[in-house]
Amino acid sequence: MADMATVYMSTPPIARTVATAVFLCSVGVFTGMLSSYPFFFHYSLLFKFPPAVYRLVTSFLLTGDGLSVLFDTYFVFTYLSQLEKNSSKFPKKEDLIWYLMFTGSVIIALNQIFTGAPTYLQALLIAMCYTVTQDQRGMNAHFYIITIPAQLMPYCLLVVQLLFPGGWQNIKVGLTGLVAAHLHDFLTRIYPEFGNGPNLIPTPWFLSWIMSTPRVQNTVYGQSYVPPREGGSRSGPLPDSWRSKGPGRRLG
Greater confidence, 247 or 165? Predict the structure, then answer.
């Protein structure tokens, strides 16, 4: 058990946190231990008292039933791990968190306007797949038993939705994820790089502040302040693995 815990904690923190939440929530719903109602989103629920703000998050935590629980959880972890470890677009943890917040907001808005779908994990998977494959242009990827250009992977995932019940609806939901990911890419990379403009949606300062604020720990005798460690590493309210350091500088 100790070895399993060590392996688990050594995985990318954002990827493991989101994948664990998706798996536990989905298992809870499909085994009857949890109600599915808190995982459905409709904008009208934000105007009730108390407003159901939590649904902005929980609507992304429910997979399909059956084997989809395992496959969707696997893809969530795989894509987030690649974005967290290998993507030049997200050098800091807060950049990836902002990406999830932005694309999630666009996905919710588009679905509320065009599809009426109440859950959005499939759209988020398509969005993450699109973003991952933008860094893999010129490379090949394996899609089941065939080899395809990596950038075609999200479109293949969309087409496969036709094989499942509600295929056309699933494609429409998936397209909202594709639009959200492309919009993020346009505003943060394409326009600044080819239009000589600024990044139109930079990571908000408050996310960086959360990642670097000194930590306060609760103890049996009250609260204690944890000072920065020697060597200049930052402390904050989030686990150490969630924080990221800036680029190093060579001396001399």
Answer: 165
